[in-house]
Amino acid sequence: MKKDNPRRSFLKKATLTSAALTAAPLVWSSGYEEKIALQRQYAPQAFSPNDHINLALIGAGIQGIYDTKAALSVAGITLVAACDLYTGRLDRAKELWGDAIFTTRDYREILSRKDVDAVIVATPDHWHQKITIAALEAGKHVYCEKPMVQDPKDGQAIINAQRKSGKICQVGSQSMASLGNEKAKQLYMDGAIGEMVMLDMYNDRYSAEGAWQYPIPPDADPETVDFDTFLGGAPKVPFDTKRFFRWRNYQDYGTGVAGDLFVHAFSTLNHILDSHGPNRALSTGGLRYWKDGRDVPDVTITLYDYPKTDTHAAFNAAFRINFIAGNGGGGGFKLIGTEGEMEVGQNSVTLKRSKLGMVPGGYSMVAFTEATQEKIRAGYAQQNLESRASSLNVGTTTWEAPRDYKGGHHDHFYNFFTAIREKGSVVQDPTFGLRAAGAALLANESYFKKGPVQWDPTGMKFI
Ligand SMILES: NC(=O)c1ccc[n+]([C@@H]2O[C@H](COP(=O)([O-])OP(=O)(O)OC[C@H]3O[C@@H](n4cnc5c(N)ncnc54)[C@H](O)[C@@H]3O)[C@@H](O)[C@H]2O)c1
Predict the structure, then answer these.
(1) Mean pLDDT of the chain
(2) How many angstroms from the chain centroid is the CA of residue 418?
(3) CATH number for the domain including 53?
(4) Which of 305, 334, 394, 323 is nearest to 14 (CA)?
(5) Residue 273 placed within a domain
(6) Contact 103, 113 (CB under 8 A)
């Protein structure tokens, strides 16, 4: 979608709602209220038996539980089965969803069941591709957690399997589906920040849990944990509960902060800008504090180049993750443009537009005589630069989602199930998922190669 003149189109709209630019917070514009109203139509009584979807969970760990809860917040969904390699997680699944659910350690037993329509794949990253393809081939719809693949080279096979199967495959960066992200997309397309100049993303953490030191249960042993299956195609190593429960810390199973955190940012950014993503990355960092056996950095700084396209100017993105943030932590995601900037969250967007200073102030005038300063000011006035600058609509506005908004995770599952029910499509399909994962994983490629790396965001290949 090409924007003709971003500034003019936004100023026109801004004039119509000039109060909007000074008062905060605002309710969402009517389009967003409609979206919420649409979701509310899906009250349980609206379901015919044909709309009912039976779901199974493969990988019943932390995110598998959050995913299943979000999935079950959409009406007409039943969890019928769960699969995991640790017995305690299967016990937990029954505790949460009842003894009637079928449980197994073997995902193939889930895929062969006729009563399963769709599966969530929430295993560690190194299992995503294999299980997703097997599920599609078995005729199941798939919600695959992000990053869609551990290695971008594995992505095309999922795209092909989804096309061949005709089933819905949705990748799980749920923020992208939120009202906050949708509002940011609308504002960007309306020209609210002008042309993109920079993207500033950071995530600072200051806790062991934030640094992926997840708890190891006291009953974990070779009986309760199927360690050999967990390893899958990764190198064989002796039984190790740290590797099993803290798999993110090892390149063999995870994707570091790139696949864990950057990938969400790329899903959001590519969606807002209608972009295929960056074409170059340069990453640095190191393992500074969490020397617990991990082989991935705990501080990462990556710079990305986005090339110019029909929907955005060429711009740079800076991503920073710090797992030893002495200030207690926090995060940010800010799009910075020629006309302003916006901080984007799942439930809110804050837009700041400011006046571009054209007329020099005292700083540079100090070196001229009073008479020369007068002449310089007169020259600017003659060009009418001052009045043009002050006619810009400036101020800070925050849009907030309604209090009872169910959030991006609910919306993402709602979109997935709606696509299944209506034989439609999803935005975060395997092509979208590979573009987000590929962009994110460039950070690892560059970090370990110690130099810049290039990527074809449309062809989805390393150059
Ligand atoms: N969308 C998000 O916001 C979000 C948040 C956290 C994690 N994730 C993603 O979710 C996935 C899981 O992360 P997590 O934090 O829940 O990890 P986790 O370790 O808590 O859970 C993973 C579970 O998968 C099981 N498992 C491993 N191999 C399996 C196999 N072959 N078959 C069946 N089960 C298997 C493990 O036993 C474990 O219980 C990861 O890909 C991660 O990137 C997404």
Answers:
(1) 90
(2) 20
(3) 3.40.50.720
(4) 394
(5) no
(6) no
Q: How confident is the model at residue 358 (pLDDT cuts 50, 70, 90)?
A: confident
Counting the structural domains of the chain, the total is 1
Percent of the chain predicted with pLDDT > 90: 78
Task: Determine the Cα angle at 89 with ends 87 and 90, to 5°.
Answer: 65
Average the pLDDT over each of 147-151, 164-168, 356-360 and give the range with the smallest value.
356-360
Domain extent for 106: 37-175
Residue 256 Cα to ligand 1 middle (Å):
14
Which atom of ligand 1 is nearest the CA belonging to 245?
A: 19
CB of 101 closer than 8 Å to CB of 79: yes
The answer to whether the CB of 122 is under 6 A from ligand 1 is yes
- Quick check: is 336 in a domain? no
> Does 69 map to a domain?
yes
Statement: residue 128 has pLDDT above 90: yes
Q: Are 271 and 181 in contact (CB under 8 A)?
A: yes
Kindly state the average pLDDT of the residues 423-451: 97
Provide, rounded to the nearest whole percent, the portion of the chain with pLDDT above 70.
Answer: 88
- Write the pLDDT tens digit of every residue in 294-350: 999 999 999 999 999 999 999 999 999 999 988 778 999 999 999 899 999 999 999
Measured from the CB, is residue 59 less than 6 Å from ligand 1? yes
pLDDT at residue 31, rounded to an integer: 55
Q: Is the CB–ligand 1 distance for residue 123 below 6 Å?
A: yes
Alpha-carbon distance 257 to 444, whole Å?
Answer: 9
Asked, for residue 145, whether it belongs to a domain, the answer is yes
